[in-house]
Write a structure and sequence with these properties.
- By secondary structure, the chain is α/β, with parallel strands linked by helices.
- It is 31% helix and 18% strand.
- An 8-stranded parallel barrel has the order 3-4-6-9-10-11-12-13, surrounded by 6 helices.
Length: 678
């Protein structure tokens, strides 16, 4: 181990328990609800194996009155839930790590529809999902007493499951304790409302009673957002975030501090640099003698060491970096810094949680597959017999497939027609705000360059004759999918008059095509490409109009938590935005548009250059030529099915494992099955 990083591996006492090092895999949604315990255990055990000193269970609801219907969270309602938690703790402990659990009642973040109990809060207010027509009940004194008993009972169950650390959760507007504390939601006039001390009362009571229940067996942590950077900002504006820390300074055994809301706590690399939360949380160690844990999308061990040596944090928390590389701590300990698979800060992990499916990651295709498919993030089964593999294309899918097959022992050759390897990962990383996209290629190229059984050939375009002459045992086509320029997109599947031959595509722009001063971008893709190009072009001096047929711009970015900041970026850059505007034609000087709802014609948008951001189509000519020669091959990544970078990486990994013969022939992996009560 590099002695510069030894401080990261010093044990730290937290109340009655001792963390073996300073790495904490944080509580976060993993897409495996209480109905999918095996997959969830697989994720957490892998992190413990990878060296994280504390491995956390995600938010666990403590009672049926906390109802996050439709979202994949955990439950610790009664004794029947304890067994699954105990198994998780056992697997974490088997690798020498501590196990923590985040107990929560979600209050007015609840739905009140699945269980039939109303959402509960300090006052009668709408639940924190404005598109749902539900209200929260104002809790009376009996409700408050019952709530305190819920926390006590859940703590006892957590103790029975063997957890080392129990969280009192008050963050991200997803905790009833936060709702009582915030004057934005608490309009009470009794001893639980009004003054700061009154609004803090329930938080203090639950914390004190949790300490009573844990005794000397478990540590008690508090997770608390010290600043509101989005949302009602009532804590930030009054300075009460610091007041809470000062009022409860030495009551918990550990302070886990961050910022609110979730969209700012989990800021993407496009808008927040590594360690950005220090600005808001650095004061905490000045007002408490207890250990302090924090986050900041940390991937650099130098940044981690700096946080500890400067007295900002005692423990380095990571959610997204632990997803991207579950073995990050082990690699630091073993002096393999270059082998860290760094988080790119794209928030695909967040997006899939918001739609209620298992965790996914652009950098780590094995996440969520540890149990059901037996995929390990670091170990690849050895091939029975070494064969030659030719991969045409060095984008995310091609490089990932090459890495898996080379690790298995095959002789791998990657041929890339461009002079630079990396495909879309390299090209898109040059767009303003997307530099971290380049980590997808950087990690894989570095690994491949160290391997003697890998040959990389940039600037080498192969046709069917060249592939046949190469004579590989296996051929993988990872040739990507170029953007269409005819206007076809996600809402309109056919070309738009005047687009073909006139519109530039994102590929054209990234290749350096001439762009006029005034530009209209038609976005029928609805993710990052159109608005990222808009920001990039404005920075280069262009006047940009951004048009979309959808009611709002870049709807998918709502799932990655970026949409509000992207819209603010567009506004600050002077981009003219036109939602709900359907393109009907281009005449060389302007874009004809109509309303998306009524079809009413709108004023044309004048511009010198049109950029169409719609869908992509694979070029199938090389595959057809191989078929004509009777040469077998596999198509992977965007060439198989165009999608996001995460999908391309996953495709490359899956196809490689299929070539190794480790995947089921019928495609059916292990599944979680509900218990049938007769």
């Amino acid at each position: 181990m590099d002695p510069r990083y030894s401080i990261l591996f010093e044990p730290l006492k937290i109340g009655p328990v001792t963390a073996p090092n300073r790495f904490v895999s944080m509580p976060h949604a993993i897409g495996h609800s209480y109905l999918m315990p095996n997959g969830a255990i697989g994720i957490r055990e892998t992190r413990a194996e990878g060296g994280w000193g504390i491995v956390a269970m995600q938010l666990s609801e403590i009672d049926p009155t906390s109802d996050l219907a439709g979202l994949p969270y955990e439950r610790l309602w009664d004794e029947g839930d304890v067994a699954a938690h105990a198994r998780s703790v056992e697997r974490i402990h088997s690798h020498g790590a501590l196990a923590s659990i985040e107990l929560a009642h979600t209050g007015i973040r609840s739905r009140g529809i699945s269980t039939g109990y109303p959402a509960m809060g300090p006052s009668v207010v709408p639940i924190l999902k404005p598109d749902m027509p539900f209200m929260a009940k104002a809790m009376d004194k009996d409700d408050i007493r019952n709530l305190r008993q819920m926390f006590r009972a859940a703590t006892r169950r957590a103790k029975a499951a063997g957890y080392d650390i129990v969280y009192v959760y008050a963050s991200h507007e997803a905790s009833i304790l936060w709702h009582f504390l915030s004057p934005a939601y608490n309009f009470r006039t009794d001893e639980y409302g009004g003054s700061f001390e009154n609004r803090l009362r329930l938080f203090r009571e639950v914390l004190e009673e949790t300490k009573e229940e844990t005794g000397d067996d478990m540590a008690v942590a508090v997770r608390f957002a010290v600043h509101e950077l989005s949302g009602p900002k009532r804590i930030l504006n009054s300075g009460e975030g610091r007041d809470v820390i000062e009022a409860l300074a030495d009551l918990p055994d550990l302070w886990d501090v961050n910022v609110s809301s979730w969209s700012r706590d989990s800021g993407t690399a496009r808008y927040d640099a590594e360690g950005f939360q220090e600005e808001f949380t650095s004061f905490v160690k000045q007002v408490t003698g207890k250990p302090v844990l924090g986050v900041g999308r940390f991937t650099s061990p130098d940044a981690m060491v700096s946080q500890i040596r400067r007295g900002v944090l005692d423990l380095i928390g990571a959610a997204r970096p632990s997803i991207a590389d579950p073995f990050l701590p082990a690699k630091v300990r073993e002096g393999r810094i270059e082998d860290i698979r760094e988080c790119i800060g794209c928030n695909i992990c967040v997006a899939v949680e918001t739609i209620g499916v298992e965790l996914r990651c652009t950098q780590n295709p094995t996440i969520s597959e540890e149990w059901r498919r037996g995929w390990h993030p670091e170990k690849i089964p050895a091939a029975g017999h070494a064969k030659t593999v030719l991969i045409v294309g060095s984008g995310p899918a091609g490089l990932e497939a090459a890495l898996v097959l080379a690790k298995a022992g095959h002789e791998v050759t990657v041929a890339e027609r461009a002079e630079e390897m990396g495909g879309r990962s390299a090209r898109e990383a040059r767009i303003k705000g997307l530099a971290s996209w380049g980590r997808v290629k950087d990690y894989r190229l570095y690994q491949l360059q160290q391997m003697p059984n890998v040959n990389l050939y940039p600037g080498s375009e192969l046709d069917a004759d060249g592939i046949a002459e190469f004579g590989a045992d296996h051929v993988l086509l990872a040739t990507g999918a170029p953007w269409r320029g005819d206007g076809a997109g996600r809402t309109r599947l056919t070309p738009i008059p005047g687009f073909a031959g006139a519109a530039l595509t994102p590929d054209d722009v990234m290749d350096g095509a001439a762009v006029g001063h005034s530009v209209v971008i038609y976005d029928d893709d609805h993710y990052y490409m159109a608005n990222a190009l808009a920001a990039d072009l404005v920075a280069r001096g262009h006047a940009v109009h951004l048009v979309t047929p959808m009611p709002s711009l870049s709807a998918w970015m709502g799932h990655t938590l970026e949409q509000p900041r992207m819209l603010a970026e567009m506004k600050a850059a002077g981009v003219r935005m036109y939602p709900n505007s359907v393109a009907t034609g281009w005449n060389g000087e302007g874009l004809a548009v109509s309303r998306g709802d009524t079809g009413e014609a709108l004023q044309a948008i004048a511009a010198a250059t049109l950029i169409a951001v719609g869908t992509r189509l694979p070029d199938t000519r090389l595959g057809e030529a191989l078929i004509a020669r009777g040469l077998p091959y596999r198509t992977i990544g965007d060439a198989e099915c165009p999608g996001i970078i995460q999908g391309a990486v996953y495709s490359g990994h899956r196809h490689a494992r299929e070539l190794l013969g480790t995947e089921p022939d019928d495609r059916v992996f292990k599944r979680e099955r509900p218990t049938l009560f007769l």
